[in-house]
Amino acid sequence: MDSVSFDRAAEFYDRTRALDPQTMEAILTLVAPELRGRGRCLEIGIGTGRIALPLHEAGVPTAGVDLSRPMLDKLVAKAGGRMPFPVAVGDATVLPFADASFGAGLGCHILHLIPRWEAAVDELLRVVRPGGILLLDIGGLNWEPDEVETRFSQEAGLDRPRYVGLESPQALDDKLAAAGAKARRLPPIPRRSSRPVRERLESIEQNLYSWTWGMPDEVRLRAVDAVRTWALERFGSLEVPLTRETTIVWRAYDLPGVSPGRTYQP
C-alpha cells in the first residue's frame, strides 16, 4: 500500500484543516523555542505549509518535502508566489537529502498516512544531525471520534481504517527509544471546535477527509444518508452545533549525541 497523497485535497485542504489564530499561536509558542538555534528544520509532509510557513515567519529556518506537487504549489502561492524556503517533491521513506543535513525534523499528522512509517522515522534519523530533535504530532491517534463520525463508521462498516500507517503512540516511542532518543511529551494544547451537524455530514459526503478516500462512493453516500436520518432523530435538527473537544499533543524526541553550536537542556 502506498503512502496517501493529498493531490486531490490541494484546493480545499486549508479550508478544512485550518487552525484558529489562538491555537496556531499556542503551537508556535510551544514548538518554535524547541527548534531555534538548531539550524534548518525539515518538515515531512509539509503540504500547503500550514505549520511551516508560520514557523518560518517566527524565525525558524525551514525546509520541506511532500508527495504532492499541487499541495506544494499552494504553499508557494500562500508565500506570495515565490519559494520561501527549500522544498522538494519526494517520499518521506526515501528522503532526497544527505546524511546529517538538518538540525531538526518535524512531522504533523503524517505518520498515520505512511504504511512504512518506520522507514520514514529511519530517514528522519538519518538526515537529522546527532544531538538534534524530532517533533511529531500524531494527530487523530490522540483524539476520539465525535458522535457523527462514530455513527458514520458504524453505518459504513468501518473499524478506524484511516490509519494505514502508525496506529499507536507507544509504537512510535518504542521505535525512537531503540535509536537512543529520549522522549518528551510537550504540554498539551486544548482545542475546541463547533460546527453544525449538517456541515460535518456535508464534509464527509464531499469526501474531504483522507480516511474515506479508499471507500467506494456508494458506500460513503449510503452511510451519510443513514446518518442524516439518524441525526434528525438524535438532535432534532441538522443545524445543531456539534462541539468537539480535542487535544493537540506534540512529542519531542531528543536524539543522542551533541549538536554543534548548541547546548541543549531538555
What characteristics describe this protein?
alpha/beta; disordered C terminus; 266 residues; 7-stranded mixed beta sheet; 9 helices
In brief, what are we looking at here?
The protein has 266 residues and is α/β, with parallel strands linked by helices. Helices cover 36% and strands 20% of the residues. It is globular.
Would you mind describing this structure in some detail?
It is a single chain. This protein is an alpha/beta fold and 266 residues long. Helix content is 36%, strand content 20%. It is built from nine helices and nine strands. It has helices at 13-17, 21-35, 52-57, 69-78, 117-127, 147-156, 169-178, 197-205, 217-235, and strands at 41-44, 62-66, 87-89, 102-108, 128-137, 182-185, 189-196, 241-248, 250-254. The strands form two sheets. Strands 3-2-1-4-5-9-6 form a seven-stranded mixed beta sheet, with helices on both faces. Strands 7-8 form a two-stranded antiparallel sheet. Helix 6 crosses helix 9 and helix 8 packs antiparallel against helix 9. The radius of gyration is 19 Å and the shape is globular. It starts with 12 loop residues before the first helix and ends in a 12-residue tail after the last strand. Residues 261-266 have low confidence and may be disordered.
